[in-house]
Amino acid sequence: MQTPSTVFIKIADYDLSALPEICRDPNAPGFADTLIRHVSDEYATDGMFAKVSIEQDTLIIAEDLEAKAKSDEGLDALQRGVYATGKAIFEALLSEHPNNAIVLYNLGMVYSDEGNLGKAIELLSTLICLKPDYAHGWVALAVAYMRNNQIIEADQAAQKAVQLAPNDQYALRTAGYIASKLNEPDAAALLENAVRAGPEDPIALLALAENLLTTHKDEAIKKRVSALLTQVIDVAPGSKAAERAEEILRGIAYDKFRQTGSLNPQAIDYCLHALKALQGMSHQEVAGVAMETAALGQSGLDVNNPNKTYQLRSIPGNYTGLQVVCFMYVALEQVAPGQDIGFDLQAEYEEALRIYNANQR
């Protein structure tokens, strides 16, 4: 059986200066209860679970192994994504350990993630009052404020986190993201530092890309933005960040594609070629083309570079990014008409279809 580590301290040797003045005398009414609460809160602030008692002239501090085990169980549940179990464990611990930093932080984060923002802000505010030098507590509070549309409070909390931990990637990316929302001039610098601190952090990479795209219009910056977005897709495939990166990349590509402001003759030719290539194919074969080209599209297609090609198996050959997009558009129009691929080729497709039908007469 495991024995809790226990500390014995003579009350005469304990610094009582932090207690209320009227409770510093061991003979004063309420002294024992005040000292026990004070010591318990000191340990709780550091995330420790302690059972505190007084026997005669000695302060006895023992580790609460049961509470510690429950906390570890709750953390494990949250790390495995079993949020309901983790939440229930920390809610039970909160009733017994209302000032424990681990309990306040993790339960506050759970409430924030599930949208219970008032409760999240309450717990995280309590946390940083008890532990004002806890940078990640300020980060969590900033996120909760931001989700609650309290952007000024979010900015203040995030800036405090950066002051406490100037090289912490989570503090930097949160402060940079919020600064971007407020159009603050230091947003880019914060996000650049966040990316340096966490070069494979998809959230920081995406936030920096979006900031640069908003604040700069020159082509050199757009190339860097494209590189950052491609990195997001590479390090976090299938994530929400990657989906957003793909959406922005399509927008950049489409803007360049539409620079002339009129129909793109190359796209018309590629759509016409696709119509001819799909002619005679079964519905299932056309669906296969749609699926293969869509899968390629999820990884990002460079539609403006004729020297870069992609291989297709369903229609054997190597094709430019624009050709692949045209195959995708035409195939989807046949198997799932009206589907939005994030790249508007309707006008080019309709012109190609008009030419195709005219040639069939």
From TrEMBL:
PROSITE patterns: TPR. PANTHER family: PROTEIN O-MANNOSYL-TRANSFERASE TMTC4, PTHR44227. The keyword Disulfide bond does not apply. InterPro entries: O-mannosyl-transferase_TMTC, TPR-like_helical_dom_sf, TPR_rpt. Pfam families: TPR_19. TPR repeats lie at residues 101-134, 135-168. It comes from Methylomonas rapida. This is Tetratricopeptide repeat protein. Keywords: Repeat, TPR repeat. Gene3D superfamilies: Tetratricopeptide repeat domain.
